[in-house]
Amino acid sequence: MGSEPSLVAEPVQVVTVDVQATKDLLHSGPYRYLDVRTEEEFKNGHVENALNIPYMFNTPEGRVKNPKFLELVLSVCRKEDHIVVGCQSGVRSVYATTDLLKADFKHVFNMGGGYIDWVKKGFAVKKQVGEADAAEL
Prior knowledge:
This protein has 137 residues and is α/β, with parallel strands linked by helices. The chain has one domain (16-125): Rhodanese-like domain (Oxidized Rhodanese, domain 1), CATH 3.40.250. Helix content is 33%, strand content 20%. The protein has 6 helices and 7 strands. Strands 1-7-6-2-3 form a 5-stranded parallel sheet. The chain has a two-stranded antiparallel sheet with strand order 4-5. It is globular, with a radius of gyration of 17 Å. 27% of the residues are buried. Mean pLDDT is 89; it is low at 131-137.
C-alpha cells in the first residue's frame, strides 16, 4: 500500500457565536450577515441588511438542499469576506457554514440560536410587507 490519497475529507472547524456576538460583529466590523432561510421565512422578518441565499428549499417531499447555494454565495461574496451565517434556529446555518469553509471561505462564523434567539433578545428586525400582508394590518 502506497501513499494513496485519503477518501475521508478533513473535518472543518465551525465556530459558533451567539446572537450578541453576531450583533457586535455586524456593527463593529466588516461582517456581512448571510441568512440561509427560505425566502418565505426571510420575508416574515430578518436581520437588517442581510443577504438571503436559501440553503434549502421547501418541496412537497420535504426540504431539499439548494444545488446552487455555493454558486450563489460566490456571486455576491468573495472567499476573503467576513460572513456570519444564520438561519431560523441554528441548524441549517451549521451545514451552510461547513460548506462555505470547505469551499475555502476564510472568515465564516455560524450564529447559534438563529433568528429565533435574535428576536428573543429584542434586536432590530426588518420585515417585508407586501400587498397581501398589508390587507391584514
